[in-house]
Amino acid sequence: MRLRFEQWRDFLDMDADSINTLREFGGLIRPHMDLLMDGVYAYIHANAAASATFSDPAAMQRARAHQLRHWQDHVFAGNFNQDYLEATLAIGRTHQQLGVDLRFYSGAYVVVLNQLVVLLGQLVPDEARRSRYLTAVNRAVFLDMGLATYAYYDTLLNALEDMAQEVTLSLARAGEYRDNETGKHITRMSKMCEQMALALGKDATWAHALRMASPLHDVGKIGVPDRILLKPGRLDDNESQIMREHPRIGGTIIPEHPALVIRMARRIALTHHEKWDGSGYPAGLCGEEIPLEGRIAAICDVYDALVSTRPYKPAWSQQAALDYLQQQSGLHFDPHLVSTFLRIVPEVEAIQSRYAESTS
Fold this sequence. Notes:
CATH superfamily of the largest domain: Hypothetical protein af1432
Oligomer: single chain
Distance between the termini: 41 Å
CATH class of the largest domain: Mainly Alpha
Number of strands: 0
CATH topology of the largest domain: Hypothetical protein af1432
């Protein structure tokens, strides 16, 4: 988790005194837990959309029994251990996968708190003691709700990210297949980009975004006529000029958007053929005028193309390809990035081995 479990507990002041108070409270409330669950599930029954989540009455009974154990064994027992963490995250993930509306999900916690206030008013006449219990219970309930909600949204975001990745790869493959490239080229190239980013000290979020974005580097080839893109021989000057438009076409296909992955993808599409010395295209950028992601993608794209077999050329040896990168350091490629790539050769080899082309 991005935020460590201990930080969640500390943020809510779930200290030893609170845990001891919860355990004391748990013994008091345990005989009344069925009544508490009755209130929660009456709330669910009263909402057609919430009750429709359950396929049949037996499913609702299973959920009730599971929830009862969770509250008794963990939340109101002050057992905030690894088992509790995994159970709470599983609840959030399951609710998202079942399509539980988060309004009803959160509402159930409100019902629990309201019922506890009423129960404590009946069971604990001493106001100071009652206040102590309520403080500890509030912390426990909000800890539980926070973790489960986190897991709910995390599961949703992961599903959306998976869909976005599939769309990205499908669009990328459309460009690659038209150019006699292979789907595994974009996989290898994108994973090399991610490894380079990590080696440069970029955080995992940036590196992951680069892996998501880099497969679209050649998407602009969709707009290049087949007679040029698939020509087996050397392109003439006019054809070369048309081919050199594919970065601009890619920049047109990928919209301007505030999302990091889309911003990266557009910059990579536009700049992966720029060169460190300014002799590249389409804009003739040089040095650090070229975005970092474009400079990284250029090295990984060229390297993987060199060591791969193509209809028009045999695969180069690894050493020949590495020698070429070094020869082009300061000309085609950012010298610092070439040095970085040389440092991650073992990771590059592992990527090439794992995503090697099928020989069948």
